[in-house]
Amino acid sequence: MKSVFLIINPNAGMRQARRFLPEMISLFNRAEWLCSVYVTEKRGDATDFARLHGGETDLVVACGGDGTLNEVITGLLQGSHKTPLGYIPCGSTNDFANGLDLPLEPLPACDSIIFGQPRLLDIGLFGSDRYFSYTASFGAFTSVAWSTPQNVKNVIGHAAYILEGIRSLADIHPIHMKINADGRKYEDDYIFGAVCNSTSLGGVLKLDDTEVHMSDGLFEALLIPFPQDLLALNRIITALRTRHYDDPSLLFLRASVFTFSGTSDVKWTLDGEEAEGTSTVEVRNVHNAVTLLCR
Ligand SMILES: Nc1ncnc2c1ncn2[C@@H]1O[C@H](COP(=O)(O)OP(=O)(O)OP(=O)(O)O)[C@@H](O)[C@H]1O
To answer: Where are the domains of the chain?
Structure first.
């Protein structure tokens, strides 16, 4: 039998992983996979386990939300393990699974892994050792809503939503940044930025499937410059809402390596989880870093 490590976050989403665990194991067993189960207890456990043991099996399966998947991918890459990855989405938003059209229910997701084909995916390297599978973003909003974005994976839609609530430009503190995108240089005051590798950044705003390829070695980045007046702000909101990312009020870039230089107090989120920024942050596309088994 082939061996699979199931890394399970029992508290993700509606706790489906607990309810479906025996049936999930049974599906793998029937397909001649022997399961070892690792149950996480806290943040960081999935990364540690994948880093230390990800090379000792034929397949590693992450079972949880986007945060758990992010942790498993981080562990595999930190440990330089080439072991194929499977994903059983059990989170509350499951943006990654939506973006790849993976089944959203645990048992069909198992089938998709068992009968799936290897699919190479680009992964984002943030700084020297943090990874993200679909988005790294920052926002300069003073709003409380932005400072607790753990369950908000729709970063661009969320930015538009917050901007709509802004009545005065005094509510926004622009972040002065220099951006280098594969050698192209930009410098401005920005209020939001997101580097993405996904077609699904939530239900409201989506990048076209034709524009985003998850294994093309490139990321898409959307930057919102600081609006000089409320008219400019409205133009930005309209461009976001209508998905006209090439509108002159926005900056839309595509590159494999981005460098963001600014102040170190910029708060970033990676796949919805907080990450500390430094005065210069490099965001790099690690081409074909992960082999995902899926149908
Ligand atoms: N046993 C546990 N109890 C509580 N939190 C855990 C546990 N194991 C891991 N975590 C942490 O919980 C955080 C959230 O988990 P995860 O993202 O998988 O679920 P979610 O937030 O419900 O789903 P989604 O991210 O799709 O909305 C992650 O940062 C993860 O590291």
So the answer is: 2-115, 135-288
User: Which residue carries 């995916």 as its tokens?
Assistant: 121
Residues of the chain with pLDDT under 70: 141-155, 157, 198-214
Domains 2-115 and 135-288 alike in fold:
no
Give the pLDDT of residue 92: 78
The complex scores an ipTM of: 0.94
Q: What is the CA radius of gyration of the chain?
A: 19
Q: If you write DSSP's letter for every residue of 30-92 in order, what string do you get?
A: HTTEEEEEEE--STTHHHHHHHHHTTSSSEEEEEESHHHHHHHHHHHHHTT----EEEEE-SS
Q: What pairs with residue 49 in β-bridges? A: none
**How many beta carbons lie within 10 A of that of residue 99, not counting itself?**
23
**Ligand 1 center to 203 CA (angstroms):** 21
Measured from the CB, is residue 67 less than 6 Å from ligand 1? yes
> Ligand 1 pocket check: which of 21, 37, 43 to mutate, most ligand atoms within 8 Å of Cβ?
43
Q: 81 CA to middle of ligand 1, Å?
A: 23
Q: What is the pLDDT of residue 272?
A: 72
Does ligand 1 have an atom closer than 6 angstroms to the CB of 135?
A: no
- Domain 2-115: assigned CATH number: 3.40.50.10330
Half-sphere exposure of 117 (CA within 13 A, CB side): 2
pLDDT value at position 213? 60
Domain 135-288 has CATH 2.60.200.40: yes
Whether 40 is in the pocket of ligand 1, judged by its Cβ within 6 Å, is: yes
Kindly report the protein residue whose alpha carbon is nearest to atom 13 of ligand 1: 67
